[in-house]
Write a structure and sequence with these properties.
There is one protein chain. The chain is an all-alpha fold and about 190 residues long. The chain has helices spanning about 10-25, 35-40, 45-50, 55-80, 90-100, 105-110, 115-125, 130-135, 140-165, 170-190. It has two domains: about 1-55, Arc Repressor Mutant, subunit A (Orthogonal Bundle), CATH 1.10.10; about 60-190.
């Protein structure tokens, strides 16, 4: 678990620890990294680490939660400032957002901890279930399934895109995926 206040010093320490951890994960597996390794690489004291985090993986949890909260804020602003959006179409904006925030996913892929991304997205998006149900007319009984499908799909797409070196722009990939999904729906209707 992490214990970060929103004061600038705490956020700066958390960022330094994250940066140090990113560097270390390029050198050795996550399970081999010690707190001593991390505080040395981050130029922070051991006390600072334990003031903010219980264990090393919490550094990843915190940073991933921050990135996912930023994504949610971005999407809410997009929907609220665009009255023509009838249903939350998130694929293109998510890809655009993660085009410049992909480092955390790269680290999670390399450390085999994609569960952190999935959990952060679930935790971050849970508070908007009622808003989505009300604004877009989604039945309450269906919202958990819709959220699970969306998060799993988005995580899968992001992982494949990043593993491939983000060869397509976010908009090109969104167009490709929309075409693929349309084809799948058409094929499914034939069955």
């Amino acid at each position: 678990m992490y214990h970060i206040n929103n004061d600038p010093r705490s956020l700066k320490s958390a960022k330094m620890l994250y940066d140090g951890l990113v560097q270390l994960t390029k050198e050795k597996p996550l399970h081999s990294i010690t707190v001593t390794d991390l505080v040395d690489a981050s130029n922070v004291g051991r006390t600072t680490f334990y003031r903010h985090f219980d264990e090393i993986e919490d550094v990843l949890h915190f940073h991933c939660d921050q990135v996912c909260e930023g994504l949610l804020t971005y999407l809410i602003n997009l929907v609220e400032n665009n009255n023509s959006v009838k249903y939350p179409v998130v694929l293109r904006p998510v890809l655009r957002y993660f085009d410049s925030h992909s480092e955390i996913i790269e680290v999670l892929i390399n450390t085999k901890r994609l569960d952190i991304l999935h959990n952060s997205m679930s935790k971050t998006w849970t508070p908007i279930k009622a808003r989505a149900t009300q604004r877009f007319g989604i039945h309450e009984d269906h919202i958990n399934y819709i959220q699970a499908i969306r998060i799993s799909t988005i995580v899968g797409i992001l992982v494949e895109w990043i593993k491939s070196g983000k060869q397509q722009t976010p908009d090109e990939l969104a167009d490709t995926l929309i075409d693929i999904i349309s084809e799948l729906i058409s094929l499914d209707q034939l069955l």
